[in-house]
Design brief:
Blueprint: H1 16-29, H2 34-51, H3 62-74, H4 79-96, H5 117-125, H6 130-142, H7 146-151, E1 157-158, E2 163-167, E3 173-177, H8 180-192, H9 206-219, H10 229-242, H11 247-254, H12 259-263, H13 270-281, H14 285-296
Antiparallel strand pairs: 1-2, 2-3
Length: 297
């Protein structure tokens, strides 16, 4: 989440609605992405709707904030959503000059499983067209988020060198590397589909991508309920660690600002470590008998 540093609002005589509009304009002036500004605005609009648009800024207190949080919780929102909403509104209130506003702890982070590489290959083999093949291969082999994949332009991709320029969360740019399936699919795709460098590489919506992944999972004999686009990014991360990639290299490929976020994937490989330990060190029955014989000496 990008840090927001704005000079404090100098006047408290205006309405909360006007102050909120000014705050949004200030965020846009900082160069934050439309997606980030939209996230801030959703949270702030929720707060403003509770306290009242025409209420003067000078009358807003921490109590209003706490009542708003209580309303969010009663509305059955997810804990993660409440956490981020509280962060955004807290920054808005700090800009208004209201200090010591508590934030809501985030829920315990984790990842809800991955696919095996054999399952990824089954999905690739179940592809009905090159778009299917590109979607699965580029997310599973490069760790792209669905939003990053769908925002790629043809000019962002260099098939010859095997790299892609990506604009990730909060407008941060990075370079990812294409895998063998991605390179082969891209070469064929670009030779058939004539596009300019400014055209979107894969011109479909997220909903269309979501449906494609679900259908591919079903065709591959997987449970569609447990397969969604983002699970391919998780699969890339855990597979990279299993194959020996360093955390620092994986962090750069995934576009994580904090290494602690990348480390969250380590727990998904701990089961592999346990199985490997048991294979190497837990003795089969015959050896157990030899150990018991040794103890009797």
């Amino acid at each position: 989440m990008p840090r927001v540093s704005l000079p404090q609002l100098r006047t408290s005589s205006q309405s909360v609605k006007d102050a909120a509009e000014l705050f949004r304009s200030s965020l846009e002036g900082l160069g934050l992405s439309q997606k980030t500004v939209k996230a801030y605005w959703a949270a702030i609009k929720s707060f403003v709707s509770l306290v009242g648009e025409e209420r003067p800024v000078s009358s807003i207190t921490v109590k209003d904030y706490m009542e708003w949080l209580s309303r969010l919780r009663s509305g059955k929102r997810q804990q993660s959503t409440i956490h981020y909403y509280s962060v955004f509104v807290r920054r808005f209130l700090k800009w208004l000059g209201i200090e010591e506003v508590p934030t809501v702890p985030s829920s315990k982070r984790g990842y809800s499983g991955t696919l095996s590489w054999e399952e990824v290959e089954r999905m690739l083999n179940s592809s009905r067209d090159l778009v299917d093949l590109l979607c699965v291969s580029m997310m599973a082999e490069s760790g792209l988020r669905a939003s990053e994949l769908l925002s790629l332009r043809v000019g962002d991709v260099d098939v010859n060198s095997g790299v892609v320029r990506v604009v990730g969360k909060y407008g941060k740019q990075r370079v990812v590397v294409l895998g063998p399936a991605s390179r082969a699919a891209l070469s064929e795709y670009l030779s058939i589909v004539r596009k300019s460098a400014r055209d979107r590489l894969i011109d479909i919506s997220y909903q269309a991508l979501y449906k494609r992944i679900k259908r591919l999972a079903e065709r591959a004999g997987l449970d569609p309920a447990s397969v969604r686009p983002h699970i391919l990014r998780h699969t890339f991360a855990t597979e990279a660690l299993r194959r020996g990639m360093s955390l620092s290299a994986l962090q750069r490929l995934l576009g994580h600002s904090d290494l602690k976020v990348t480390q969250l994937y380590l727990h998904l490989t701990s089961e592999d470590v346990r199985r490997e330990y048991e294979r190497v060190f837990l003795a089969p029955p015959a050896q157990v008998g030899q150990w018991q014989d040794w103890r009797r000496r």
